[in-house]
Design goal:
The strands form 2 sheets. Strands 6-7-8-3-9-10 form a 6-stranded mixed β-sheet, sandwiched between helices. The chain has one domain: Rossmann fold (3-Layer(aba) Sandwich). 33% of the residues lie in helices and 27% in strands. β9 and β10 form a beta hairpin.
Length: 221
């Protein structure tokens, strides 16, 4: 589902060059649940952003579902992301002035579907994460675990084949973290979603199919 070939990412200023990723090659199969671990600053989030087409590699090639995406325009990439990929962030990134249902519906605004269909898909996504009784609430009325459930619902409302999760349990206590992890495992099993999760938590990583470790931008396992 995701293929990275000799990915390099360099950040340059007038005086310094920083290697964020160094010759990363990785194949992630359809329906696989992969976790990525490593110390802070090792390139985990950069790798996830390149997989999610939010950033472009300095060198190398990215293929998703056997499609080479290096030469697509920004508009084409945005359309592809919206159809294929769901994102879950550590800090939730919910809009406080919008109700839970409206937050879950946001990615669907960029699709050519009716308002009725958007509401149906967002409601179904919230039901999957156990929040059907909170659709009229605002984020300020939710716990951290509930906010992350809304973020997951937003990520899956459009039925993406790929879910990219950046520290999805990082801001939660262990009980809430386990609940969120159970939801991701269920999405992987029942929906056959391909999931890549960045985490610092070895316990969470061991629940996934495979673990990749990064150190100073290089893959060490």
């Amino acid at each position: 589902m995701i293929r990275l070939e000799n990915i390099e990412k360099l950040y340059r200023t007038d005086t310094i060059e920083t290697i964020a990723l160094d010759r990363i090659s990785l194949n992630i199969e359809k329906g696989e649940f992969l976790s990525v671990m490593g110390p802070s600053g090792c390139g985990k989030s950069t790798l996830l952003n390149i997989m999610g087409l939010l950033d472009a590699p300095t060198k190398g090639e990215v293929k998703i579902d056997q499609q080479t995406l290096t030469h697509l325009s920004d508009k084409q990439l945005a359309r592809f992301r919206n159809q294929k990929i769901g994102f879950i962030f550590q800090s939730f990134h919910l809009i406080n002035d919008l109700r839970v249902l409206d937050n879950a519906e946001l990615p669907l605004l960029y699709r050519n579907i009716t308002s009725k269909e958007r509401i149906r898909l967002a409601t179904e996504a919230l039901e999957k994460v156990g929040l059907s009784n909170r659709i009229k609430h605002f984020p300020s009325q939710l716990s951290g675990g509930q906010k992350q459930r809304v973020a997951i619902a937003r990520a899956i409302a459009g039925n993406p084949e790929i879910i990219l999760a950046d520290e999805p349990t990082g801001n939660l206590d262990s009980a809430m973290g386990n609940e969120i992890m159970d939801i991701l495992l269920q999405l992987n099993r029942a929906e056959k979603a391909t999931i890549v999760m960045v985490t610092h938590d070895e316990t969470m990583a061991k629940k996934t199919h495979r673990l990749v470790r990064l150190f100073d931008g290089s893959q060490v396992q």
